[in-house]
Amino acid sequence: MRAVQFTGHGGRDVIEYAEREEPTRDNGEVLVDVKAASLNHLDVWTRRGLPGLDLDMPHVPGSDAAGVVVEGGGTKFEEGDRVAVWAGTACGDCEFCRNGDEPLCVNYHLLGEHVEGVHAERVSVPADNLVTVPEGVPWERAAAAPLVFGTAWRMLVTRAEVRQGENVLVLGASGGVGHACVQIARHAGATVYATAGDENKAKAARSLGAKEVFDYTDENFADAVRDATDGRGVDVVVDHVGKETWRDSLASLAKGGRLVTCGATTGGDATTDVNRIFWNQLTVLGSTMATRGEVDDVLSLVWDGVFEPRIRETLPMSDAAEGHRMLEERDGFGKVVLVPDDEE
Ligand SMILES: [Zn+2]
Questions:
Q1: Are 6 and 99 in contact (CB under 8 A)?
Q2: What is the rounded CA–CA span in Å between residue 240 and residue 332?
Q3: What's the chain's average pLDDT?
Q4: 165 C-alpha vs ligand 1 centroid, how far in Å?
């Protein structure tokens, strides 16, 4: 079987599509033939190398995939079942797991980051990481949804507790998490503002429910938010950009507002105006991944068509490097999907 693999950490030239040994199924695992997979920024970070991440090379990346069960191994899954992969694995036994808060697990792992991923023709995945995909849901959609919609759902619904009638600003609406956040905030009854880097992306964000989209390349989004809200600001900002936007994200918040972050793609050493935090009584919320219950909740809405993962491009796995380029250069809107070469 073939898989996308990194020959080491580095640029896109370390990516190859190569022959590998068939995966062996451990206890509690299910063997799955992958029909489609999708890329996340995490794949780019893993390729470049993360502090404290020590991987055996070559390493198979990938946290999102969907496909057909080949061998259920005595789990609740049987040959022929349609499944999608959820990447988060928790120990099940630490104080946080026992409280039902898997993403806080002291031994939290992600498929594709800490262990072998799913950008491969065949994978062996713990049964706990599989979600049933109903007939009729296209493979591309099933593979594009889990990580970004799970992450976005926990951020907005569980952590920020967005309510009907609130204003929400989503930074980077063209990315996977961003475009999921626009849809979820709108579905929760909020008025959604967003930022995007060009008019095509702005148009796509508006088509998913954003009321106004600000082009961060030619205006200060905090000023634009103030103008759009009669000087009030928004109740919730979703920021996964970090250093570059942090100050303006805080400046976009109304009194009592919440900033929720799930990442810092431009760096984590941002400057915070503490005066603004206490005087306006702001709340900063961190969020990462989701519980399996949250994943079930949001994916059932994806399967029902309430939420729509937008596919920016579908590429053969042998062209994974092009997909990495599209993410790194913010080229396009939504998710990049990979399909095994002979499935094209
Ligand atoms: Zn745990």
A1: no
A2: 18
A3: 96
A4: 36
CA distance 126 to 38: 19
224 domain-assigned? yes
Q: Which residues pair with 314 in a beta bridge?
A: 337
> What's the 296 CA to ligand 1 centre distance in angstroms?
19
Domains contained in the chain, number: 2
Which tens digits make up the pLDDT trace of 242-272? 999 999 999 999 999 999 999 998 899 999 9
Q: How far is the CA of 117 from the centre of ligand 1 (A)?
A: 20
Residue 294 in domain: no
Residues 339/36, Cβ–Cβ less than 8 Å: yes
Neighbours of ion ligand 1 (CB under 5 A): 90-91, 94, 97, 105
Q: How far apart are CA 278 and CA 255, in angstroms?
A: 10
Token digits of residue 151 = 């992450």
What's the pLDDT tens digit per position in 138-164?
999 999 999 999 999 999 999 999 999
Return the closest-CA partner of residue 148 out of 314, 293, 334, 297. Answer: 334
User: 0.90 cut: is pTM over it?
Assistant: yes
Residue 344 has pLDDT above 60, yes or no: no
What is the arithmetic mean of pLDDT over 22-26?
A: 94
Tokens found for residue 295: 């994943």
CA of 153 to the centre of ligand 1 (A): 21
pLDDT score at 218:
87
Unique residue bearing structure tokens 């092009």 = 322
Q: Are 257 and 250 spatial neighbours (Cβ–Cβ below 8 Å)?
A: no
Domain around 227: 149-286
What's the CATH number where 226 sits?
Answer: 3.40.50.720
